[in-house]
Design goal:
Length: 124
């Protein structure tokens, strides 16, 4: 079976993994109303005319960022000392660690596409 060379499908698969990792982190951190937050996750892969992805966009309930920072209801980010709030870093650390993986995945995928283009050219 031929390997998938569609960069858009690869980008969507990566985005789905990011969402899955966020959900795992939310459960591990026991974030209240986690069902509302997890049910709000969506990922969109915007494509150029040639089908390649131009942008990967994530959407989720905005309050999730406040939970990540330990902010909200009069508590500013970084000023949670003496309150019952504490940061629950489900978003930032997970996203940025997965963001480091994406270039490696895409480099491999583009290398495979290039190799296949050369093989097809030489076999003609």
């Amino acid at each position: 079976m031929a390997e998938n060379l569609d960069i858009g499908i690869t980008a969507k698969a990566w985005a789905d993994i990011v969402i899955q990792k966020w959900e795992q982190k939310i459960i591990r951190l026991k974030i209240k109303k986690s069902g509302d937050l997890m049910n709000s996750f969506l990922a969109y892969v915007n494509r150029e005319a040639n089908g390649n992805p131009s942008m990967i966009e994530f959407t989720f309930n905005y309050y999730g960022k406040f939970v990540d920072m330990g902010a909200g209801r009069g508590v500013k980010a970084g000023e949670h000392e003496g309150t019952n709030r504490s940061p629950k870093p489900w978003y930032s650390s997970t996203f940025y660690s997965q963001l480091q993986v994406l270039p490696e995945i895409l480099a491999g995928k583009y290398a495979e596409k290039g190799k296949m283009a050369i093989i097809e050219t030489l076999s003609d």
